[in-house]
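Hi V.,

You were right to ask for the full record rather than a summary. Here it is.
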Amino acid sequence: MYQPPQQGQPYYQPPNGPYPPPQRYPPSYPPQKPRKKPNVWLWIVGAVVLFSLFAYVSIATSTAKNGTSTTTATPTSQATTTPTAKPTPQPVRYPPVTVADLHALAAKGDASAIVGFHSESTGLVAICPQPKRFVTVDPSITGQQLAQDLLAYFYAGQLDSPCGSLILVYHQQSESNDVYTAGLIHFDVTDASGGANTDPNASGLKYTLTLDIGTFDAHQEAVVTY
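Predicted structure:
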């Protein structure tokens, strides 16, 4: 049975008495506010908005790249060009018949194969000189090749003079005289009257080229008049 303490005695409370000892809690200064729980719906709405915005941007970009614009192609008018027919190369004609044949043969010749060793002028030297050349050629050069080389030498030396010219051909210089032994080119020019031309500036002239590729008595000459 519990008895209150007498005066001067210490206060005693039995362990299982009717008054339990008071519980002590640590003081909180200042008292903490309760934490708010995160709003889950707010996060969900934000995620949906961001997803929608991203999808819209992606669709717009894809449409801009893959979009087709309707354009009407204007046909370009091209000028119809008729291909120019290339002239068929004509074979070189030998013996020559025309002045074109003479130039065609000369184009295939080698002027250096003809070696000049003497030159002089005849005719009216003071007014209209006629060049005269003495030349040699290797005996191995004959036929059409000799004709080509002689014509190449003739045109390269500008011997188609309006006053006429003469080339005498030999195999050796020792053979030289007024009678050729290997070939000849005689370029004769006449005026409107039919006589030998003596005016280097005359017009209406007639040209006759005699080409020989043998001795004077072999009769291998070709005559071209133009």
